[in-house]
Design a protein that fits this description.
about 45% helix, 6-stranded parallel beta sheet, disordered C terminus, Diaminopimelate Epimerase, Chain A, domain 1, 7-stranded mixed beta sheet, alpha/beta, CBS-domain, 38 helices
Length: about 900
């Protein structure tokens, strides 16, 4: 049974979304989880729309529900008794919603969540895509949903998709007279009384320069459409933010509206169990008085409202500067090394001016590379202090036309603010082809909180360690971040306990202090790189690094590392999805840091590089792009793919050390299903770019697929032997090569020394062994043992994958499972006891015994002794000596 439902206190968007969902799921039952807003109830009373059969929630047998379709919400706390379905494995959940993420969210098997003005807009797009027809009455209902949730297209959350959906509904016959009547109903006497109370009881709460109006009212009976009253009051007084708490019957209704970024009403109202958007939210509160709600609300406002930002909160730090006596050539190196466009010029710590890239390039062009930078800088630059408001900074950049504003504290430069930092503050688009972290805006601690997700997805022990790390960092005055794949996989709901911490401060001293908090912890530090590994008693480990910046002296070279900020540290990562960080400090624990749009790209399932030179600097990122695309099912962004193909055409792999290429190839071959990334590699022409002889033919890929099956068989034997599975795949990928080409490929991947020679020789032995098996002359267990005994496990598994003969495959498997463990029934001591003189004769005796045991020709020690005496009789002199010895 399918069920469509929405949130309690349903509005027109909720109902319209249910109607639209019914078109997509025609066999589903439709039920409200609880009450509806008065406007919606009035509509039911007056409308002739009886096309949608509404069932009562309590009449639905939840045991028979196998698919739940949620519209206009995904919060467990807002769907009544249907929330229990989220705990059942046999219930498929489909979600259509336009609300921001919240800690109370359910997760569906199918999720369509978009930032549009109304949820019904999302469903209309799906209806249009499937070419499903609707009639005029249905179009009117759907239009009511859009008009209500967009404030008749006046709310800032309205998008072009909402306009396009409404235009289509008009084409389908939506009646705007009905829509207008429902949107502009006159206020009743009770509503006017409540509005009067709201005006009389209003109070302005100032929060760091932000005025928020808080007001209360009470009513003896139920008064509908509180949201309309609050909206009217906001418009009448031209308020930026308003919270209205109204007591009615047995509960308090909290309605909130905001046009300020600093006042996220959805986040604040969520503290009362409600939900909504940053600009509009509501909650229905039981078991609290009106005054308790007000007191709690003001306390939450003081905690949650973000005061207007200061320069220190958006500046990039530390500032990268150049001394006044440095040359233009040195300035050019700085600009390219740090991938920035402007440099503050300093002398004894004081800023003299700003040097811009275009000035440097012109000076170099005119042969002025040896001139000092202070000659060509822009002097007399205005600056701000860390506590200056963003408005002051905007005034300098817009009116003064400065590209870069230094931030000065006690006469010294402590940071800079670029135009991109300000564009992000103003929510304007950033450049997509940036080659510099400073071209990306500084958005420290402005992401959502993922604290609850952190606590739910990670083991308690790990959460406790991360919490302690934040406490240590806060005590030391250092910022501590969880970074890397663990953050990415947390958002993807994938398991990953590779914990990497980055410290804006001193990584090794921090690691020592953190390790001291846990008995039995050891630390291994690397002073050169400012990194450390903390090893716990149970072998769990955490990597700690000082925030650092990398630059590349030439394409494909290993990076040079310098201490830097978290923003620059994250900028050196390969793809945007790996640039996310989570703050762990006590005050900000759980805040998601996203400078480069990583969370957006994860949501859109796209792999993007951070700048146009990403593959030039490190061509191995091409292999990682393919691996991540395969592992996560992400598409490689169009621009990123073009850059990748250009790097392949430019033969940039030729500049990379073989061992780095091998390391990336090993990671790829150790994926759960390496066939997928290898197929992608082949599609992009990567094998030939790595080495001209490499050619992943259809036969090669069949052999890889066979290898996957063999390694799966090996895995489930649960043997103690450890193997390098990558080398089995490597043998499969190179099986079609001549011995000369194989040697060349091995050298290109820097597989040197014993391993390279071993692989080359075993390839030859494989061909010889398989030829013997193919002739049918290897049948006895002892013969099988003799042919296979000198081959490594990896080579044996490769042979199993390569052979087309089931008899050969069975013989190798018997050797792996049984034959290689067989020992002779007698030992050297036994032979001495029998009278044999220790010497070269022991080797053939023991070999013969082993062959006999393998072939089941001897089963007991006495049979083994008889066999030895018969084949290797003791010479008379030895026998006489044995007799003399016994007589004496």
């Amino acid at each position: 049974m399918d069920v469509i439902t929405t949130h309690v206190n349903a509005d027109f968007d909720a109902f319209a979304s249910m109607v639209a969902a019914k078109k997509l799921y025609p066999d589903a039952a439709v039920a409200f989880p609880g009450s509806q807003e008065k406007n919606l109830r009035d509509f039911f009373m007056e409308s002739t729309l009886y096309i949608l059969s509404i069932e009562r929630a309590k009449d639905i047998d939840l045991e028979n529900v196998h698919r739940l379709i949620l519209v206009d919400t995904r919060q467990k706390s807002r769907i009544g008794r249907f929330s229990t379905l989220g705990n059942r494995d046999n219930v498929e959940i489909h979600i259509y919603d336009h609300h921001p993420d919240s800690e109370d969210d359910m997760h569906g098997h199918k999720e369509t969540i978009r930032e549009v003005g109304a949820t019904v807009t999302i469903l209309i797009e799906e209806i249009r895509k499937r070419r499903i027809e609707i009639n005029a009455e249905e179009a009117t209902v759907l239009a009511l949903g859009i008009y209500e949730d967009t404030g008749s297209f006046t709310f800032s959350s309205t998008t072009k998709e909402d306009f396009e959906a409404a235009a289509w509904l008009l084409q389908k016959g939506a009646n705007l007279n009905i829509v207008s009547n429902m949107m502009t109903s006159d206020l009743s006497r009770d509503q006017i009384e409540v509005l009067h109370q709201l005006i009389e009881e209003s109070e302005i709460v100032n929060l760091g320069g932000i005025d928020v109006l808080v007001t209360t009212a009470g009513a003896e009976g139920y008064v509908g459409d509180l949201a309309i009253l609050v909206h009217k009051y906001k418009d009448m007084e031209n308020l930026d933010a308003i919270f209205a708490a109204v007591r009615m019957e047995d509960r308090v209704h909290l309605i909130a509206r905001s046009s300020l970024e600093e006042v996220n009403v959805g986040e604040i109202v969520a503290e009362f169990g409600g939900g909504g958007h940053p600009t509009a939210a509501s909650a229905s509160i039981r078991n609290m008085t009106l005054f308790q709600v007000k007191d709690k609300l003001i306390a939450i406002l003081k905690e949650k409202v973000r005061p207007k930002q200061k320069a220190r909160e958006i500046m990039s730090r530390p500032a990268i500067v150049i001394e006044a006596d440095k040359t233009i050539l040195q300035a050019s190196e700085y600009l390219n090394r740090y991938q920035i466009s402007s440099l503050p010029v300093v002398q004894n710590g004081s800023v003299l001016g700003i040097l811009h890239r275009n000035s440097v390039e012109k000076a170099v062009h005119h042969g002025l590379s040896a001139e000092p930078v202070n000659v060509y800088m822009n002097p007399g630059v205005l600056s701000v202090t860390p506590d200056d408001s963003i408005e002051n900074v905007l005034q300098l950049t817009v009116e003064g036309r400065f590209r870069l504003v230094p931030v000065i504290e006690e006469g010294k430069i402590v940071g800079v603010i670029s135009r991109s930092d300000l564009l992000e503050h103003m929510k304007l688009p950033r450049r997509s082809d940036s080659a510099s972290p400073d071209e990306y805006p500084q958005t420290r601690l402005r992401g959502k909180s993922v604290r609850k997700l952190l606590e739910e997805r990670l083991p308690k022990k790990v959460v406790d360690i991360l919490r302690k790390a934040g406490q240590v960092g806060s005590a030391r005055g250092e910022e501590v971040y969880l970074v890397g794949g663990a953050v990415r996989d947390l958002l993807l709901r994938n398991h990953n306990l590779d914990i990497d911490l980055v410290i804006e401060g001193q990584g090794i001293p921090f690691a020592r202090e953190l390790a001291a908090q846990f008995p039995g912890c050891r630390i291994r530090g690397h002073e050169k790189f400012g990194t450390a590994v903390i090893l716990f008693e149970d072998n769990f480990k955490i990597d700690v690094a000082t925030a650092r910046h990398e630059y590349y002296a030439r394409p494909g070279a290993l990076p040079t590392v310098e201490t830097s900020s978290i923003k620059r540290d994250l900028f050196r990562r390969d793809f945007t999805m790996n640039t996310l960080a989570i703050s762990l400090n006590t005050r900000t624990i759980g805040h998601l840091i996203d400078f480069f749009g990583g969370s957006r790209d994860i949501k859109e399932r796209i792999i993007r590089v951070l700048h146009n030179l990403a593959f030039v600097e490190d061509p191995t990122r091409i292999l990682r792009a393919v691996r991540f695309s395969s592992r996560f099912g992400f598409a490689i962004g169009k621009h990123t793919l073009n850059l990748m193909k250009a790097a392949i055409r430019m033969k940039l792999f030729d500049k990379v050390e073989g061992k780095r290429l091998l390391n990336e190839l090993i990671h790829m071959l150790e994926e759960k299903n390496p066939l997928s990334p290898l197929t992608l590699m082949d599609g992009y022409g990567i094998p030939q770019a790595l080495h001209p002889a490499l050619n992943f033919t259809p036969k090669t890929m069949e052999l890889v697929e066979s290898t996957i099956g063999v390694l799966s068989w090996w895995k489930y034997l649960f043997m103690k032997d450890q193997i390098d599975s990558w080398s089995v795949y490597f043998l499969a990928l190179t099986d079609n090569l001549s011995d000369g080409d194989f040697k060349s490929v091995v050298e290109r991947f820097s597989i040197v020394g014993d391993l390279g020679r071993h692989m080359a020789s075993e390839r030859i032995l494989v061909r010889q062994a398989l030829a013997l098996f193919a002739r049918g002359i290897i049948e006895k267990p002892s013969e099988i043992y003799s042919v296979l005994r000198n081959l490594s496990l990896e080579t044996l598994l490769f042979m199993m994958a390569k052979t087309m003969r089931e008899e050969t495959r069975m013989a190798i498997s018997e050797y792996i499972i049984n034959y290689r463990y067989v020992k002779p029934l007698l030992t050297g001591k036994d032979l001495i006891r029998m009278g044999y003189e220790p010497g070269p004769i022991f080797a053939p005796i023991l070999r013969t015994l082993k062959q006999a045991s393998l072939d089941r020709e001897v089963l007991t020690r006495s049979e083994a002794e008889d066999l030895v005496r018969r084949i290797f009789p003791i010479k008379k002199k030895e026998a006489d000596r044995d007799t003399i010895s016994l007589d004496s």
